Write a sequence for this structure.
């Protein structure tokens, strides 16, 4: 397995360079990774003390941020290195205040891993959730450096627990401790004789609770919403948007405001969505030139505002589960105590299962399902508020992962 893996990595690098000529996102990653070692050599010296945080993408960054922020204080004299694999994380958080250097992680070849670990030489490494790179972790272990994995979530069908997964299974043992989201993940680790694990829960709960302490005021949303009910649809895909536009165009809720935040904000996608809506619609980019208060639909043709905008929602719809792209973050709206609608493909998301069982979240499969539950939530204030409270209570009951992780690091350091 190791021989095959180490031959595939350079091949993957070659193929990515070819694909980059036709794909802007991949091009960003290829170009960014080519700069990593130059950035490290320019900004690090042999006398620097460092801590390394690694995330696959933006979601894992947000998941790890409560831990990163506390470690930034704890290791105030250290240089913090934050790495991403995906441009979706790097491009949005390349100026993150929790890090001194934000970089792309080079591909996981033996040569890259050895060079990277020798340059950074981290006193502590924190990986988030699942981005397991065998050669990097083997170098960390070989150099007797500390590493932990936080908010880990495992499934029985993953390669770590299959007969062919020896290389990745071995890599897990480079972590001195793994903090899992649930008991099932801890049991799976024990099945491969990894015993240094703690069920701490998901740091995302702490992260979204921190959102309540931020200034979530957005004046343009207040102008748009006025005193009407507002449905916020976050991270929507075309199949989600079809559901929304059909409902809005039917005139079922003429006095309700809708804010749609598409996952894809390419101009062509935004134009298509706008054309499909048969009601007064305004774009975020037009907010200075068009009368916001007169619009029924506000389309966000920008990123980075959704977590604050959920504060103004009376009801949320979270995209990704109507198709097969994967359900987006449902904890962000839940923390504001509002009911949530999602699609029917949510089986891989335990938080969605939990909130559905509690009665704060509702799964829909088609336009009729969507219409029935949304009409009920819009017309029945008591039902709407009771459903929302169930979600906020669920968030509060599951906080505390960050404290457990920090306590472990204080005791073991």
């Amino acid at each position: 397995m190791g021989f095959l893996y180490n031959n595939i990595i350079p091949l993957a690098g070659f193929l990515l360079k070819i694909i980059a000529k036709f794909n802007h996102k991949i091009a960003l990653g290829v170009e960014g990774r080519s700069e990593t070692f130059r950035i490290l050599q320019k900004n690090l010296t042999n006398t620097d003390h460092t801590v390394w945080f690694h995330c696959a993408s933006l979601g894992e960054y947000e998941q790890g941020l409560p831990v990163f922020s506390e470690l930034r204080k704890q290791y105030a004299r250290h240089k913090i290195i934050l790495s991403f694999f995906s441009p979706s994380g790097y491009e949005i958080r390349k100026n993150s205040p929790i890090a001194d250097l934000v970089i792309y992680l080079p591909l996981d070849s033996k040569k890259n891993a050895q060079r990277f670990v020798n340059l950074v030489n981290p006193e502590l490494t924190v990986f988030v959730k699942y981005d397991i790179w065998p050669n990097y972790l083997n170098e960390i272990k070989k150099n007797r450096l500390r590493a932990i994995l936080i908010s880990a979530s495992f499934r029985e069908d993953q390669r770590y627990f299959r007969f062919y997964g020896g290389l990745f299974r071995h890599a897990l043992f480079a972590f001195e401790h793994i903090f899992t989201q649930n008991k099932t993940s801890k049991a799976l680790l024990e099945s491969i004789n990894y015993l240094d694990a703690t069920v701490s829960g998901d740091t995302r709960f702490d992260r979204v609770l921190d959102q309540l302490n931020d200034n979530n005021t957005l004046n343009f949303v207040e102008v748009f919403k006025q005193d009407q009910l507002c449905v916020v649809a976050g991270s929507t895909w075309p199949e989600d948007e079809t559901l929304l536009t059909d409902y809005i165009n039917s005139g079922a809720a003429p006095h309700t405001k809708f804010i749609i935040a598409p996952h894809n904000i390419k101009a062509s996608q935004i134009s298509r969505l706008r054309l499909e809506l048969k009601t007064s619609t305004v774009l975020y980019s037009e907010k200075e030139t068009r009368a916001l208060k007169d619009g029924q639909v506000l389309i966000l043709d920008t990123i980075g505002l959704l977590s604050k905008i959920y504060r103004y929602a009376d009801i949320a719809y979270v995209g990704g589960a109507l198709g097969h792209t994967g359900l987006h973050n449902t904890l962000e709206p839940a923390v504001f105590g509002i009911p949530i609608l999602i699609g029917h493909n949510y089986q891989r998301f335990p938080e969605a299962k939990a909130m559905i069982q509690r009665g704060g979240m509702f799964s829909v499969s088609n336009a009729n399902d969507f219409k029935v539950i949304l009409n009920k939530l819009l017309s029945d204030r008591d039902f709407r508020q009771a459903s929302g409270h169930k979600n906020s209570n669920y968030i509060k009951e599951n906080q505390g992962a960050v404290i457990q992780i920090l306590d472990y690091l204080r005791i073991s350091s």
